[in-house]
Each structure stands twice: as C-alpha cells, then as structure tokens.
Specification:
Largest sheet of chain B: 6 strands, mixed
Shape of chain A: globular
Structural class of chain A: mainly beta
Distance between the termini of chain B: 40 Å
Order of helices and strands of chain B: EEEEEEEEEE
Number of helices of chain B: 0
Helix content of chain B: under 10%
Strand content of chain B: over 45%
Radius of gyration of chain B: 13 Å
Oligomer: heterodimer
Structural class of chain B: mainly beta
Distance between the termini of chain A: 36 Å
Largest interface: A-B, 20 and 17 residues
Strand content of chain A: over 45%
Number of strands of chain A: 11
Largest sheet of chain A: 7 strands, mixed
Shape of chain B: globular
Chain lengths: ~110, ~120
C-alpha cells in the first residue's frame, strides 16, 4: 500500500498568516498518463470532507484562491496564503493512483 | 448537483450484519464508479472499496481489512449503491461515506456502531 505521511499533524495559525502542510507518499503518484493523482481535502467540524485541490495543483471550483497545491513525484505541499477563521478543520491528502486508495493521517488546523 | 444520501447505519452487536445504502442524484449514476470510505470516531479516512460501472464490468475491489466480510453492489435502476457488511467487529465502528468521484461532494455519511 502507498503510505501517505503528513506533517505537521497540528497547526495553530494567526488569522492572516500563511500556513503550509506537507504530504509525502511512499511511492511516486505520477501515472503513465502524465497526471499525478494527489488530492487535498478539508473536513470542517461535523461535516464530510470537501475537495480543495485535485491532481496536485488544480483548485476545485469555488475554492478560494488563498489555497494552492504544489509538488511532484512523492512530495507535495498545500499552502494557505492567509488563513481565515473558516479554514479550521482537518486537512487530508489522498492518492488515487493505486489501490487501496490511501489518505494521510490528517493535519488539524486551528486559529490562534 | 451531485447528491449522495447514505442510510442504514445503526447499533449492532459484534458478529451481526448490516446493509448500508447510498442514494445518488444529480449525475449519471450508471456510469459512475462508486466508492465507500469510512471514518472511525476521532480517526482519519479509510478507503473501504469500490464498484465499477456495469459497462466497465461492474466488478469490485476491497481494502484488505474487509477480508470477504463486505460486499458492494449497485442497482442502477434505483441509482443506489449498497454496502453489505457481515461479521461486524468493534473496529468497524465508523461513519461510512459513499463517494461518486474524488472531486464531487460527499454525502453526510451514516454511523455504524458495533458494540455488545
């Protein structure tokens, strides 16, 4: 199985400040079709996960521009340029290149 | 707009069975590969399994922990996917979500509690 490792596991951020979450996979997520199957989700308290970023760096429709994804191969990063109060929750990375699909442990983001 | 509504969760004893349903709307269900993901209390997300569309064979894949205990099926006439769970264990306690696509909204999930 591909192991997805997120760091840090928790983050306390002052509103308006940037935040960054790392996700490393145990195998390359680059598919032979040229796409890299790495997603980022945010699970707000009491809600199901919602997609933020797909295929490493594509912001999903309606996701604020302050969210960006980058990386390649096995190393990926989610950045929030200026954290807002509504960004609290748990962030997960996920790979969909291989079965079983696997998720990172989650990074809990709270506001200071 | 994609809508997924899971149902069928509840409290069962270890060793018992339960069937979850996921009613879908807002997309062409018959073409979708449907997935189940679960989340234990206070825990992370765990992929359970998936079923391909009938046109892609309708076959299934499962996580290793399922070990023949769970079966995913679909009824395209009802736009519904099912998760039949047998020999339930306490560690199967979780909210179970169905997913139509990794970029589509998830349902609210249905809670399964396995406890004596």
């Amino acid at each position: 199985d591909i192991v997805m490792t997120q760091t840090p596991l928790s983050l306390s951020v002052t509103p308006g400040q940037p935040a960054s979450i790392s996700c490393k996979s145990s195998q390359s997520l680059l598919h032979s079709d040229g796409k890299t199957y790495l997603y980022w989700y945010l699970q707000k308290p009491g809600q199901p996960p919602q997609v933020l970023i797909y295929e490493v760096s594509n912001r999903f429709s309606g996701v604020p521009e302050r969210f960006s994804g980058s990386g390649s191969g096995t190393d990926f990063t989610l950045k929030i340029s200026r954290v807002e109060a509504e960004d609290v929750g748990v962030y997960y990375c996920m790979q969909s290149i291989q079965l079983p699909r696997t998720f990172g442990q989650g990074t809990k983001v709270e506001i200071k | 707009e994609v809508q997924l509504v899971e149902s069928g969760g509840g409290l069962v004893k270890p060793g018992e069975s339960l069937r979850l349903s996921c009613a879908a709307a807002g997309f062409t269900f018959s073409k979708a590969w449907m997935t189940w993901v679960r989340q234990g209390p206070g825990k992370g997300l765990e992929w359970v399994g998936r079923i391909r569309s009938k046109s892609d064979g309708g076959t299934t894949d499962y996580a290793a922990f399922v070990k023949g205990r769970f079966i995913i099926s679909r009824d395209d006439s009802q736009n519904t996917v099912y998760l039949q769970m047998t020999s339930l264990k306490s560690e199967d306690t979780a909210v179970y979500y169905c997913v139509s696509s990794w970029t589509a909204p998830w349902g609210q999930g249905t809670l399964v509690t396995v406890s004596s």
